Predict the 3D structure of the following.
Amino acid sequence: MNLTGAALHGRLRGEMRWRASLIAVLALLVGGCAQNGNEAAILGKQAYLAECIVCHHNDPAKDGPLGPAIKGSSQELLEAKVLRGTYPPGYTPKRTSGVMPSLPKLAPRIANLAAYLR
């Protein structure tokens, strides 16, 4: 196959566009994966600010007026305390007041809260 200079140039340009498109798609995929993790934390922060700061500090690393600091709380602890009003087996509560009510409406947001509180 004998290509003229113009045909060769056109073919190379097409290959370069294809490679650039492939790189762009890969960058979006990689960026999207990282963004999904951030999205969970963002949604968790929204839930925390809407539901939790009444008793807990707006900074989850600090004690609130009624609730203790909860930064680093595991998903297991959140499921037990937020959804059922209990503690996981073997967990020692930071406070023994028992004031926190269960909030089953937060069930769909527990994973997001855990992502935010990590």
Summary: The CA atoms of residues 35 and 46 lie 16 Å apart.
